[in-house]
Amino acid sequence: MKMYQVDAFSSSLFKGNPAAVIVTNDWLDDSLMQQIALENNLSETAFVKKIDAENYQIRWFSPLTEVDFCGHATLASSYVLFSDYTTLKTIKFHVKNLGVFVVHQEQDGKIRMNFPVRKATEIHDYPDLLQQALHFPIQRVYLNTQAYIVEYEHAEQVLAEQPDLQLLAQFGKLRTAITAPASGFDIAITALAEKQTAYDCISRYFAPGIGIAEDPVTGSIHTAIAPLWAEKLGKNQITAYQASQRGGTLYCEILGDRIEISGEARLYMTAELHVI
After folding, report:
1. pLDDT per position as a tens digit, 208-243
2. Looking at 44, 161, 260, 264, which residue is catalytic?
3. Do the beta carbons of residue 208 and residue 198 sit within 8 Å?
4. Would 102 disulfide with which of 49, 60, 81, 114, CB 3.0-4.6 Å?
């Protein structure tokens, strides 16, 4: 069985978020998929079931559990499919509970993915545990089905934060993101990033409750973060930087209740699994 490992949301190797991708004609047993994901020990391993050259089903597994949505592993899977499985430039992923993701490969190599917006709502009654786990003054807290999204005043605070992961793990499958505007700190962010880019916002993302201490780059949470900053900044196109140690860039465009997130990817490895 062939497996790919792809660095997603990066134009070069060893940055972005690595994801494993396995393309099959039939689903493997759930327990086997979970064991493979645990063995890979990446943020996510994606399993893609081919319907035809244009249509696919996709599932994602962290080292500890199946997750309902993963953006970077969708990007990695799209990269693999466009490279080795279809000559089409547009494909569709059929996703349980989330509908159809239309994905397009641009001429410049970027992959553009159409997702539902997963709106986050501001909350005022949030757990004290959240403030205990973080070390900078909280400006606002938002919540969607995936995560608490904590807004800081300055990008420097996002970069400097060292959260108490044991406390954040107590939220279980509910993750935690921190974010701030990039304005006034573009030079420092650009020094971390791969390209000279004007960024609108910066973020980091922690999911210790599902076996991911800090996720390098998270497409799914930007279906909430990008619309937040789009509203704050009065613009529909948001360029976001996720400031993990590896780092990655997400190009986002809000289209009503949908969002298109684009990024680049690079193949790191192909491997042969001996599991069947």
Report:
1. 999 999 999 999 999 999 999 999 999 999 999 999
2. 44
3. no
4. 114
